[in-house]
Design goal:
With 621 residues, the protein is α+β, with helices and mostly antiparallel strands. The chain folds into 4 domains: 191 residues, Heat Shock Protein 90 (2-Layer Sandwich), CATH 3.30.565.10; 124 residues, Ribosomal Protein S5, domain 2; 116 residues, no CATH class; 107 residues, MutL, C-terminal domain, regulatory subdomain (Ribosomal Protein S8, Chain: A, domain 1). The chain is built from 18 helices and 25 strands. Strands 1, 2, 3, 4, 5, 6, 7, 8 and 9 form a 9-stranded mixed beta sheet that branches. The chain has a 5-stranded mixed beta sheet with strand order 10-11-14-12-13, with helices on both faces. Strands 17-18-19-20-25 form a 5-stranded antiparallel beta sheet.
């Protein structure tokens, strides 16, 4: 058989090539790829230039998601005629003179790359009139080629007109989203810039029609309400304080009753720049980690001011990321500040008019009252529900809370033996409560004292989970109950390793477990709380959960993660019938907890239904 032609050849490495200088066009397109990712990047860079020029009003016009046209106009200082051609050269800037200025740079742009990068991949027209000049000047740049400066008409300020973005790089256009998606990204970008500079007025027009105006706001809270809705004003608070030497933070944050399904409501601003920072994001998340369910996020707009040298803004071409000195200290200081302010906020207030699992209020603790315009079921819908016997229907998806209302008398437990009311004394943040009983073998029912009266529903599982968690977190051993006959369980290797790791914590939580062979263990005792013991089978689920990292977030210390998981598995369950004295003891301990409106995972413990809401449901005048 003939040998293969390749037989006996020695594999050779890559061919040696000479080092050469790239041509000017390739250099510009590479630079453009670093700075200009999509149309929203163009808007960001041009608006930041307007802000650096001292603009009080910035108008943005966009067509076809920015691919056909982006126009940014401002009333800033303007550009001198002789500087117009220089503005499009790489690393040409009026905001920096030497490397000595970098540690103390205060302008949003300083690299001198934005206009050059945009002009390399688009057709650009720059028109500007400086303050005091009699007329404006304009020039056009196409694909990096600069034209001549000509006279033009314009009021003082600057206009940048960008047409046919990526016209000479079709591969870049292919990877963009649809025009509508790109337009939404532009809206998000402009709103971030507005929140970073609320004293500036912004306007946005999409496809020749004005879609939104963001007027100059007197406060950051007003600007945030403009972006996230008027209810934010009724459900927010401001905060400020030092976050370390040379660092000062201030901002606004939402009450836990107002949450979102994405983290877009967390806006971080450092010296006027909207940035991404893991340290600050972790501080926000950890401050709310016991107050919101997993997958829900607060609205927090944070402004951080730093003394020169405390932050490095020259680590990313788009200035999207910055680097702090001693980031861990910054994270802890900011977390402590925000957490302290959260604990100072009032919690006991009515729910919104509609309890829906898709609504943020249905996933949150008691918060500020909804407006009178809150949705209420129409009379015909309520009458129809009454005719079917489905009295709970007007509560939307909250059937699980009040599904037993049609037969309430058969589900509510009797009061105490004397027939008199049992009262839970109020505190500075809790209303006094008259216990009525238990419905659905899970929810404690009461009536708030004082005026106005409200129906109060309390999740017994979430309440006991909070009490247990606070005990475990404070290293207080829990009561345990010995089993008459030890229960043998088979544990996997992963569960056994987890038991070995967390054995001390589990013992303190009330589980007594001992080896009984290679993979078999015996449970000799289980946690005991208020007359109810944990189910032995909960041990396996608890070990699996701890092996997966527990129920806490990444920012949770180890002990808190263990306490959260253990408390959930040891808490009162649905079907555990409570006597009035047991309810009294549970709520008394709950009221004494430092955080008593959510379980450790952020689910609500209490909901209130105001008297006027009940009257409206029953069509009372």
């Amino acid at each position: 058989m003939a040998a293969s032609p390749a037989a006996g050849r020695v594999a050779r490495g890559p061919e040696r090539r000479r080092i050469r200088r790239l041509d000017e066009r390739t250099v510009h397109e590479i630079a453009a790829g670093e700075v200009i990712e999509r149309p929203a990047s163009v808007v960001k860079e041009l608006v930041e230039n307007s802000l650096d020029a001292g603009a009080h009003e910035v108008l943005v016009r966009v067509e076809q998601g920015g691919l056909a046209l982006i126009e940014v106009s401002d009333d800033g200082l303007g550009i001198l005629p002789e500087d117009l051609p220089v503005a499009f050269e790489r690393h040409a800037t009026s905001k920096l003179e030497s490397a000595l200025d970098l540690p103390a740079v205060r302008t949003l742009g300083f690299r001198g790359e934005a206009l050059a990068a945009i002009a390399a991949v688009a057709r650009v027209t720059l028109t500007s009139r400086p303050e005091g000049a009699h007329e404006a000047r304009t020039l056009e740049v196409e694909g990096g080629h600069v034209g001549e400066v000509r006279p033009a008409a314009r009021a003082p300020g600057t206009t940048l007109l960008v047409r046919d973005l990526f016209f000479n790089t079709p591969a870049r256009r292919k990877f963009l989203k649809s025009p509508k998606t790109e337009a939404l990204k532009i809206v998000e970008t402009l709103e971030g810039l507005y929140l970073a500079h609320p004293a500036v007025s912004f306007g946005l027009s999409l496809d020749c029609g004005e879609i939104e105006r963001y007027p100059a706001a007197a406060t950051l809270q007003e600007a945030t309400a403009r972006v996230f809705g008027v209810p934010f004003l009724r459900s927010s608070f401001d905060f400020s304080g030092a976050a370390g030497p040379g660092l000062w933070v201030e901002g606004v944050a939402s009450h836990p009753s107002m949450s979102r399904g994405t983290s877009r409501g967390i806006v971080l601003v450092v010296d006027g720049r909207v940035i991404v920072s893991k340290a600050l994001s972790d501080g926000v998340r950890y401050a709310y980690h016991e107050l919101l369910p997993r997958g829900r996020y607060p609205v927090v707009v944070l402004h951080l001011r730093a003394e020169p040298g405390r932050v490095d803004v020259n680590v990313h071409p788009t200035k999207r990321e910055v680097r702090f000195e001693r980031e861990a200290e910054l994270r802890e200081a900011f977390h402590a500040l925000l957490r302290s302010k959260l604990h100072d906020q009032p919690r006991a207030a009515p729910t919104s008019g509609r309890l829906s699992t898709g609504d943020s209020s249905a996933h949150a603790p008691l918060g500020p009252a909804a407006s009178d315009g809150a949705a209420v079921p129409p009379p015909e819908a309520f009458a129809s529900a009454m005719s079917r016997g489905a009295v709970a229907a007007p509560l939307g998806n909250a059937r699980g809370v009040l599904s037993a209302l049609p037969t309430l008398s058969s589900h509510i437990r009797p009061l105490d033996g004397t027939g008199g009311p049992t009262v839970i004394p109020g505190t500075s943040v809790h209303p006094g409560l008259v216990l009525l009983g238990q419905v659905g073998e899970l929810y404690i029912v009461g009536e708030s004292q004082g005026s106005p009266r409200s129906l109060v529903l309390i999740d017994a599982h979430a309440a006991s989970e909070r009490v247990l968690y606070e005990r475990l977190k404070a290293t207080e051993p829990l009561a345990r109950q010995e089993l008459l006959a030890p229960l043998e369980v088979e544990l996997t290797a992963r569960q056994r390793a987890t038991l070995e790791t967390y054995g001390g914590e589990l013992a303190r939580a009330g589980f007594v477990v001992e080896p009984f062979g290679r993979s078999t263990h015996r449970i000799r005792a289980v946690p005991f709380f208020r007359g109810h013991r944990a189910r032995p089978e909960a041990l396996g689920r608890l070990l699996d959960e701890l092996a997966d990292g527990g129920r806490g977030g990444e920012a949770d210390p180890l002990r808190e993660r263990v306490a959260k998981s253990a408390a959930c598995h040891m808490a009162i369950r649905g079907g555990d019938v409570l006597s009035i004295p047991e309810m009294h003891r549970l709520l008394g301990e709950l009221y004494a907890c430092p955080e008593s409106f959510t379980c450790p995972h952020g689910r609500p413990i209490m909901l209130t239904l105001p008297r006027e809401r009940l009257d409206r449901w029953f069509l009372r005048p």
